[in-house]
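We now fix the convention by which a protein and its fold are recorded. Here is one such record, which you should read through line by line:

>
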Amino acid sequence: LSLKFGDIGNLKGLVIRFLLTTSYYQLSVQNWFSLHRLQLLYNHSVQATFNATRIHAPATYSYHCDHVSSLQRYDALLIPSSANDLSQLWEVTFIDFQIQGFNIQEGHFAYAKDCASFFSPAILMGLVMSLILLLVLAYALHMLIHLKSLDRHYECKASPAYFAEMKDNDMGDEKEPLRNSGNESYELRNKQFGKIYI
């Protein structure tokens, strides 16, 4: 598949050639196409060759990616074919890249297989947060299951109340006046107590 720039200024003689291959995979029971190599030609001579990695899709689909590049900051899906090649002097980046080499109908792309990973940072963060919430919920259910009922395990036992023994005949001798900040109060001298159970 060749992309020619025509009569666009300095790009008049530039051609970008995509070498596509098809293979049948028994595991998926269908044909897949792969971008095997990308070549840059200028005035009919090959200037640079890049090997493509991870650019593949089912033959009935198209392939789409936000960035297909030879630069590391874009995950470098295009790798120079040789260290001695002129590819080292070229930097190639396609933005909003979509390609389909086979089974094209009515000049439109088929459904696109995207290059986005199933485990992007946002998805991983969502999975971690879901796991934390599940752990909190499991702990709360564990605490509810092991919560003891007050009706079964608590017997209503009141502690004995102690009251000072009252004597009608010796009230004058039993109490002694206390003076505390102008208020009159009494203290019992006899420390005898009686027990009353409720």
In short: The chain has two domains: 2-116, 118-156. Helices lie at 121-145, 150-153, 171-174. The chain has a mean pLDDT of 77. The first helix runs from residue 121 to 145.
